[in-house]
Write the structure tokens for this entry.
Amino acid sequence: MKLNEDFVIHRISGETMLIPTASAPFHGIGEGDETVGVILDCLKKDTTEAAIVDALAAKFIGDRDEMAQDVHAVIEKLRAIGAIDD
């Protein structure tokens, strides 16, 4: 899976934003923290949820199971707006 090319990642003042282009199926702005930024960065290329969890675990200290749950939740939200190409 990877990020749909109709979405652009933008960072400003510590926030990560997901901005759709005119041809995206979603019209609005997605907003997230540094964790979401890492997830989106991983999605720039074809990846898996497990690989994203590995990237988070390498960057942050925390419970790996909670990270996996968070990654899954973010991926499902991105799928719901059409931002993920499987």
Summary: The longest helix spans residues 64-80. The chain has a mean pLDDT of 94.
